[in-house]
Amino acid sequence: MKTTLLTIATLSALALLATACTADEPGGGASAPAGVQSALSVTSVLRDPGTGVEIDAHTRAEVLLPLEAGSIGVFRSQGTGYTSALNNKKYTYSAGNGWQPAATTDSIMLNGDNANVCAYYPYNADTKYASSSALPLVSGKYTGTDVAHDPNDLCYDYNRALNAYSRKTEFKMKHAMALMELLVGKDELLSDQDMTLTSVSAVNAASATVNITASTPTYGSVVAGTVTCNPADNDKGVVIPALPGRATPARMLLVPLTPASTGTVIGLTVNGNPLTATIPTTDIAKIEAGVRYRVKITVTPVIMQVTGVDILPWTDVTVGGDDHVYNPDESI
Fold it and tell me: Which of 41, 115, 179, 239 would be 292's cystine partner, CB 3.0–4.6 Å?
């Protein structure tokens, strides 16, 4: 019985191989020249938490984290010998099998000629994600944590030429957006006053599209606007602590752009009252993808002040249940 089972399995495997080599590929591609045709093999997906410039060290660092959950969207161009491009095909990770097409119709096949392949994360089935040259970006509240990826935090890896003879690839996903982290505290002169933060904003771009096909992404269809969000999970807001050492964090995803010559305007709503301050271009000359901008803000009895700006590698920060983040090595 054992020999019979092995024989059936072997015959099945041969039948599947023959089908893969002779049938047209799913999604409208053509059969390969001289019968050569192989499926794309995604060997691994790594997620780049972001790169930034440490103000003091002036160094750049790359940390790659293995991505072993969720789905990615994959694109294949219409290379020589292919009848069409394949757009936004879903590849999903499963333990033991790695990254595989979510369905037969998601399989990306390669023939003997080169075709460009790129990918993004996390996968979105919306028709707006049908083109690798115009994936949508939306600025707003950052909801990512060390265990859950923000669905609006689009990450990508750009085109590489693959074919049936060179079909294996590793995607190193990089952030297409920037992260702005506002650390808000109040002056010690206000330590006896209850202060609640219900809204933060930044003059930036409300939305845009990104072309992920090249190593340096390009942005289009930029819609200017003021990005506003509530840092809390409810309409009650979060308490602003007294300085030094503690701060209320508020995080926003921002479309990369060059701020106006007057700088980036930051807004807060504290106890129902609007406050504004400007980050000069000497501190933030350009908002870049994959960079975390940590802006330190102090509310005083008279005004709101930007007291410092750090440009850092993008790392997910876990915030305790008291809505505060503690910075033991610095005073903001």
Answer: 179
Cα-only R_g, the chain? 24
DSSP state of 323: S
Q: Give φ, ψ of 106 to 5 degrees.
A: -90, -5
CB 108 within 8 A of CB 39: yes
Identify the H or E element spanning 204: strand 196-211
C-alpha to C-alpha distance for 102 and 319, rounded to whole angstroms = 34
Can you tell me the distance from the alpha carbon of 204 to that of 9, in angstroms, rounded to the nearest whole number? 59
Q: What residues are paired with 156 via a beta bridge?
A: 120, 174
Amino acid sitting at position 322: D
C-beta separation of 120 from 112 below 8 A: no
Residue 297 CA: distances (Å) to CA of 56, 247, 264, 269: 20, 9, 14, 13
Classified as helix, coil or strand, 172 is strand
pLDDT in tens for each of the 332 residues of the chain? Answer: 333 333 323 333 333 333 343 333 444 444 444 568 899 999 999 987 654 443 333 334 457 889 999 999 999 999 888 999 999 999 999 999 999 999 999 999 999 999 999 999 999 999 999 999 999 999 999 998 877 899 999 999 999 999 999 999 999 999 999 999 999 998 888 888 888 999 999 999 999 999 999 999 999 999 999 999 999 888 888 999 887 667 888 999 999 999 999 999 999 999 999 999 999 999 999 999 999 999 999 988 877 778 888 888 776 543 333 444 333 334 44
Q: Are 32 and 164 in contact (CB under 8 A)?
A: yes
Whether residue 217 is preceded by a cis peptide bond, meaning omega within 30 degrees of 0, is no
Other C-beta atoms within 10 Å of 66: how many? 10
Record the tokens describing residue 222, joined without a space.
């930029």
Give Dmax (Cα) for the chain.
Answer: 86
pTM of the model: 0.81
